[in-house]
# Entry
Amino acid sequence: MKKTINTLVLIILISFSSKAQNNYQIKRATTFSEYATNQLELTKADKKFLYDTYLAKFVAQREKIHGKDLSDEEKKQVYKASKNELIKTLNTRFSNEKSRAIMAAVKEIRDK
# Structure
């Protein structure tokens, strides 16, 4: 039930936020989901889940930050809250160990 609710929330976020999507967000979500899938040998369904999750994260961040004239500290708070929400979402589908592995793989590609 919890997984279903979280999935519905993600779908709603994505559908309401479709206007704010841009190529950069889509490219990052694609890169992150493909890299993690290849590194951890995840299924196509898991890849789609990761893509949707990361895209929702990026769209939500943009909505909270873009055009709001936030200080660097306020932006850091948004990013931290977004990361915590991402971890919660990943934990609804994957074990803690697998979620950490996904986050590590994404960090690896992000830092390249």
